[in-house]
Design goal:
Blueprint lengths: L1 H27 L6 H4 L5 H21 E7 L4 H14 L2 E4 L6 E5 L2 H6 L6 E6 L2 E7 H14 L2
Antiparallel strand pairs: 1-5, 2-3, 3-4, 4-5
């Protein structure tokens, strides 16, 4: 279900960005304001573009989100504060959950908006540290920061 929600959000965001770009080009006079003359296939191009965006949106959650182990040896009492410190340094705040999984959300409303409220990073305890899950680029950044912190 989460995969579908992420796909729909990405589709809507990309559609909005494309519509804004085309609107700005039309308003600036760089392209004609009639859709039938802007695209080769006229109005048929709109559903073709939407189909292309749907394909990219269906693929994006598989490539854009990741689950990676972050090596952080030690007991929970030793590693918990290190994890908390790294997450706070990267703009995350701890979120209360009852299922035992640590969860962090971005503090900044602007960061949350640009990520379409898909900014949650979960940290599940494993033998060698934590397994982080969330937006791929953020997960990699946090895993590297945790590795640097333990050196």
């Amino acid at each position: 279900m989460r995969y579908l929600v992420r796909s729909v959000k990405y589709f809507l965001r990309m559609g909005l960005i494309l519509a804004l770009v085309i609107g700005v080009l039309m308003a600036a006079g760089f392209v004609d304001s009639d859709i039938s003359r802007v695209f080769v296939n006229g109005y048929d191009s709109l559903w073709q573009i939407a189909l292309l965006l749907a394909v990219f949106s269906a693929i994006y959650p598989k490539m854009g989100y990741a689950k990676r182990p972050a090596l952080l040896p030690g007991s929970d009492e030793e590693t918990g504060p290190v994890l908390q410190q790294v997450m706070e340094a990267h703009g995350y705040e701890r979120e209360d959950r009852t299922d035992g999984v640590l969860s962090f959300r971005k503090r900044s409303a602007g960061d949350r908006l640009t990520r379409l409220w898909e900014d949650r990073i979960t940290a599940e305890r494993i033998v060698s540290g934590y397994e982080l899950e969330g937006i791929g680029r953020d997960v990699i950044r946090l895993c590297n920061a945790l590795r640097e912190k333990t050196r």
